[in-house]
Amino acid sequence: MFDHTHGLSGHRILTGDRPTGPLHIGHLAGTLAGRVQLQVRNRQTILIADLQALTDNAGNPAKVSSNVLELALDYLAAGIDPAQTTIALQSGIPELAELSTLYMNLVPVSRLLRNPTIKSEIEARGFGDSLPAGFLCYPVSQAADITAFCADLVPAGADQAPLVELSNEIAMRINRMAGEEVLPRAELLQSHAPRLPGIDGRRKMSKSAGNAIMLSDEPDDIRRKVFAMYTDHGHLRVSDPGKVEGNVVFAMLDAFDLEPEAVADLKERYRAGGLGDMVLKRRAEAVLQDLLAPIRARRKMLASEAGEIRKILEAGTAAARETVQPQHSRVRRAFGLA
Ligand code: TRP
Q: What does the domain layout of the chain look like in residue ranges?
C-alpha cells in the first residue's frame, strides 16, 4: 500500500474510533494502514471511544461494550503494536469526562448546532425532538480527548476537520484564561487515500449499509463479495469500452494492488474495450485474499487469548491516564479549581 506517514516523526498523535462494529477494508485503506506506519516514529495513542459511541447508542449499550474487544482485536490483527501504540479505553480515563464538563462552559449550543459534521449526523440519525444532549456535545468531549493528550496531529477523515477546529478554539480559550500556553493546537492529518466505495458502488463502505468486506471475513465471503462488486452496467460485452470511474473493482485495485503499473495498464485496456470484468475480479480477489489472510489468521489467534487483550487494554488505559494528568491539572487550575 502507500506511504501514509509523509516522513512524520516525533509527533504526539491521537486518533480514535467508536466501538460500534468490527472494522472493514475501508478503515484499512483510510486510517488503519497509516496508523501502523505512524506508530514507528511518533507517540501514538488510539482511543476506543466508548463514551462517544454511547452518545447515540444509549438504547443499546451492549452493542458498544461488546465491540470494545473486537476493535482491539482488529487493531492488533492489522499490525498495531501495543509496544509502540497506546490503545486506551475512553471510559477508563475519568479525567476526560471532567475536562468535557469544564469545556462545555466555553461552547455555545448555537456553535454546536452549526457544526457541519454534527448537523449532517443529526439529520442522518433523524433525532427530531429527541436529540440527546450528549450527542450534541460529543465534539466537546472529543476536544477533551485531543487536548488531554496534547495531540499535535489527529489522523482522520475530512469529516473530522470541524471537530479539530473546535478543539483548537477551546484550547486557545483555555490558554487565554491561564495566561500561558497550557494546551497546544492540533492539526488534522488527512489520509490521501480516497474513500473506499462499498461493493454496491452506491455509497462509501460501511458495515451498516451491508456493503463492506470485513477484516475478519472468511475466504468464501471475500470471493462472494468481490464477484458481487459493481463494475460498469454499460459494459455488457467484453469488447465494449468500460468505465473505470465509479468501478468498484478498480477502486479496490487502486487501494490495495501492489503493482500500480499493472493496474494502470488494465485501466487502459478496460477503457479501450476487450477486457472482461472476470479478469479484473479475479485479480481483485487475489489481491484481497493476500491482504486479508494474515490479518484473519492473527485475529483468530488473538481472539483465543481474550485475557491477554484485556490486559493490553488495561495497561494502555493506565498509561494514558498518566499522560493526561498534567493537562488535566492545568485546565482545572485555569478554571480556579485546586
Ligand atoms: N469521532 C471519531 C470517529 O467517529 C472518534 C474519536 C473519538 C476520535 N475521539 C477522538 C478521533 C479523538 C480522533 C481523535 O471516528
A: 3-196+306-334, 219-301
Alpha helices in 6-79 (DSSP H): 25-27, 33-38, 50-54, 61-78
Q: How far is CA 211 from the centre of its chain?
A: 17
Q: What is the pLDDT of residue 194?
A: 81
> Hey, what amino acid is at 40?
V
> Ligand 1 center to residue 97 CA distance, Å?
15
Decide which of 3.40.190.10, 3.30.70.100, 3.40.50.300, 3.40.50.620 is the CATH code for 3-196+306-334.
3.40.50.620
Please give the grid coordinates belonging to residue 170: 477551546
What's this model's pTM, rounded to 2 decimal places? Answer: 0.94
Residues with CB under 6 A from ligand 1: 14-18, 47, 49, 52, 142, 145-146, 154, 156
**305 Cα: distance to centroid of ligand 1 (angstroms):** 27
* Distance separating alpha carbons of residues 167 and 145, to the nearest angstrom: 9
**Distance between CA atoms of 52 and 257, rounded to whole angstroms?**
34
Cα angle, residue 57 at apex, residues 51 and 63 outer, rounded to 5°: 90
CB neighbours of 28 closer than 8 A, spacing ≥ 6?
78, 215, 291
- Per-residue pLDDT, averaged over 298-308, amounts to 97
